[in-house]
Design goal:
Blueprint (H helix, E strand, L loop, with lengths): L2 H9 L21 H12 L25 E3 L2 E2 L6 H11 L3 H19 L6 E4 L4 H7 L3 H13 L2 E2 L3 E3 L10 H11 E3 L11 E9 L3 H12 L4 E9 L13
Parallel strand pairs: 1-8, 2-8, 3-4, 3-7, 7-8
Antiparallel strand pairs: 5-6
Bound molecules: zinc ion (2 copies).
Length: 247
């Protein structure tokens, strides 16, 4: 355990981000042993579309699959009680180092398994709106992507910007589509470093895929050789939920 972590833990005791139980000050985990077991079980659930365990699934919403080389996620994102849901939600509001280290290491293991050597990739992320980042004090996807690039000994760049457009929840489906497209753009400075690169773009959750499609399209237009989409969670329709593995 790092000395810095130990000192920090004395003043700010580590907590389990799922059940909020205070952990021993010598701990550097984001989950208590019980919640960690729940998370491991969630990871072993099977995708209802391809019937593979989630970390091996390559299912993507229509439109996105044609534009990406792989679409990778770790768990199904469910709003009901689940350790995965609690981690994603906690990361939106807390710059909690143990949690970001944990999320990045989990994603790194799956990426390495699926893509092999990662040092030639350029890592980026779907940015949060400036308004939200300022209000919550953290851009969770940036924190994860940054740590992933470091683990992979690869390049990292804030390639995309999020314009502060209208809140999605008050819009119709068609308005949402148009609003999503308008919400993202390439950062002026990043345009020259995208051409010919293999890019991994990270977001915390994939739902309709519209946000990721907008971002992937921008990266491809700027000349990216290929784009891999990586998310921690994936949502499925209510009638199409994950099944526990058949053993
Ligand atoms: Zn717990
Ligand atoms: Zn699948």
């Amino acid at each position: 355990m790092r000395v810095g972590d130990l000192v920090l833990n004395l003043f700010f005791p580590p907590v389990c981000v799922s059940c909020k139980e205070i952990l021993p000050y010598t701990e550097t985990a984001a989950l208590c042993p019980l919640c960690r077991t729940r998370y491991e079980k969630e990871k072993s659930f099977h995708c209802p579309e391809c019937h593979m365990p989630h970390p091996e699934c390559n299912c993507a919403p229509k439109g996105l699959s044609r534009r990406t080389s792989q679409t990778i996620h770790l768990v199904e994102y469910v709003k009901e009680e689940s350790a995965s849901h609690d981690m994603i939600v906690y990361a939106k509001d807390h710059l909690y180092e143990y949690l970001f280290r944990f999320l990045a290491s989990e994603l790194y293991a799956v990426l390495a398994e699926r893509l092999g050597e990662l040092s030639e990739y350029l890592f980026t992320y779907v940015p949060r709106s400036r308004e939200k980042s300022a209000a919550r004090g953290v851009d969770q996807s940036k924190e994860v992507a940054k740590r992933l690039a470091k683990m992979a000994d690869a390049d990292f760049g804030s390639l995309l910007i999020h314009r502060d457009t209208v809140e999605q929840k008050h819009l119709s489906a068609e308005e949402r589509k148009q609003n999503t497209k308008r919400s993202y753009d390439l950062r002026e400075k990043s345009k020259d470093c995208i051409r010919g690169r293999h890019i991994i773009v990270y977001d915390d959750v994939i739902t309709t895929g519209a946000t990721l499609l907008a971002c992937v399209s921008l990266l491809k237009q700027a000349g990216a050789a290929d784009v891999t989409v990586l998310t921690f969670g994936k949502t499925y329709r209510g009638d199409q939920r994950s099944k526990t593995p058949i053993v």
